Amino acid sequence: MTTQAQLDSYIRVTPAFGVSSSGLWFNSSVLRIRVNDAGNASAPFRTRPRISDLIFRVVGGLRNAAGTSLWMPTNINLTATGSWGAPVITRITLANPLPVAYGPGISVILDFDSAIHTPAGGYNETVLRNRLTFSPPIGVNFEGWVAGAGQNRLVINITTVFAQPGYRSDFLSMVITSTGFQDLQQLYTQGVHVANASADPGILIDNWPALPNPPAPSVVRFEAINANGDMSLTPGDAVEIEFNVPTNWGIAGRTYSSPAQLSWLQPQNVVGGANVSVSFGTSFTGAWITGRILRITYVDTSGCTVRPVASRVFITAAGGIQDSTNTSLTVDALTGFLTGTYVSPVFAQVYAYDNNNYTAYADGDSFTISFNTEMNFTSGTVISQATLDSWFTFSDNLGQGYFGVWSNAYNLQITINDTTGNNVTLDTFRITGKPSGMLQDKNQMTGYIAETSPLAGNGWAQRMYCSCRRHHHRIVD
Q: Is the dihedral of CA 360, 363, 365, 370 positive or negative?
């Protein structure tokens, strides 16, 4: 076995085809050099030089086995023949030879590590589609040909481009899967080879016209979270901002320990058609709890004026939020209005009252909806049937006529004055809020009420009497 140091004293190879090699003399005249370390584990094929580029130069220390000959001259360059095996892609070039804007004439050039065979009929579109898969796709129609003195370059000319060019970042992370290419002598046929510019950025050269970057992530949810499960806004409650795609800070799991670090979030309410600044409170923190969700947690709720329905947040570019690859535009946008609730449940109970018939649900009966949080109504306020129907969905048909009266800010009594056509069953009767009705608590701790109540309690047939006869008995000893 000949070591790397011994090889270096005999022969110099350019370009280098590895960082570590060893040699083995098959006999007195044949030396085989083995590459032990190609030098780039993430892109082993790209480190393979083209056979036609290899030059072997004797630098000394070689003569015949008997030691009787002169030393081999050191001014002789030897070129290489043969093949590394099936050809593989070592370079991807996004070329713009004309140059033009994004349009017909731009091309993709694939350099292989050795000369490639041209099939009968050349590299027409059908052959290219059979042998190459591009992700993302490069065009609607294209054609190719072999070029270069070494016959190792495949030029793919795009004759019909897409109506929309796609995003620059997608092409910079292009993945090309190739199969079926042969060396020039057709001794070796390629199985499946993947050239991945995302895993090996050095494999790609970008000379294409400027293409757009992906759009900034967009907000799909801005929601209040009642983390403590209580009936007031307290430390630990939160709001969450969810984006449509994983973000750069989300996958990094970034946290924010103080309001100063979150100054790029600017909450605001719309008052009289104008945006008015509001506050998350005296103290709050932030954390990306998933790749897409940023949670703002209240530490001190003093001065917190961010409310469901009323508040939005302007996310400024200073936050630096981009997609997970840091290639999109930066978020600089306003969220929708805050949904969710700081208190729950809003419905405390539904309580049925038998006011009339005593034996069945009948005209004049009523039920009370009790709320856990103060509503924005005073005692005696009358609510029409139309308004009730806009606020609530009743699981059962109450009948033809009903109205409501607020007993106080926590209790709404609904009286049925015409039960015709009803199908009310106490065992199944519930009430569900309609967000479209825009019923909200007085202090705006909830969004527009959308939850479903517990099952109704008590009953509409509570005064059923039985007749009993009293008997007197004498006890005799």
A: positive
> Residue 473 domain-assigned?
no
* 222, HSE (Cβ side, Cα atoms, 13 Å): 21
Whether 291 and 241 map to the same domain: the answer is yes
Residues 448 and 373 grouped into a single domain = yes
What's 16-55 look like in SS3? CCCCEEEEEEEECCEEEEEEEECCCCCCCCCCCCCHHHCE
Q: How far apart are CA 343 and CA 372, in angstroms?
A: 9
Stretch 230-251: mean pLDDT:
95
Instruction: Using DSSP, state whether 201 is helix, strand or coil.
Output: helix
DSSP E strands, 316-422: 333-334, 339-340, 347-353, 366-371, 382-383, 392-394, 401-408, 411-418
On whether residue 465 sits in a domain, the answer given is no
Write down which residue in 59, 79, 99 finishes a domain.
Answer: 79
- DSSP label of 65: T
**Same-domain status, 233 and 322:** yes
CA separation for the pair 153, 142 (Å, rounded): 16
Residues 51 and 156 in one domain: no
Residue (of 272, 318, 266) closest to 296 by Cα position: 266
**Do 271 and 367 belong together in one domain?**
no
pLDDT tens track for 302-346: 999 999 999 999 999 999 999 998 889 999 999 999 999 999 889
Judgement on whether residues 134 and 112 belong to the same structural domain of the protein = yes
Q: Based on the number of CB atoms within 10 Å of its own CB, is 378 exposed (0-12), middle (13-18) or buried (19 or more)?
A: exposed
Does residue 237 share a domain with residue 177?
no
Q: What is the CATH number of the domain that holds 307?
A: 2.60.40
Looking at the DSSP bridge assignments, the partners of residue 348 are none
What is the β-pairing status of strands 20-27 and 204-206?
unpaired
- Residue 62 maps to a domain: yes
Among 205, 111, 211, CA closest to 170: 211
Report the side by side order of strands in the sheet with 219-225: 255-256, 283-288, 293-300, 238-243, 219-225, 339-340
**CB–CB of 152/86 below 8 Å?**
no
- Report which of 331, 307, 336 is spatially closest to residue 320, judged by C-alpha positions: 331
57-66, 118-127, 282-291, 350-359: which range is least confident on average? 57-66
Host domain of residue 404:
347-458
Q: Domain total for the chain? A: 4
Residue 462: its pLDDT value, please?
A: 55
114 to each of 13, 140, 303, how far by Cα in Å?
A: 17, 29, 71
* SS3 call for 259: helix
pTM for the model stands at: 0.63
Residue 151 domain-assigned (yes or no): yes
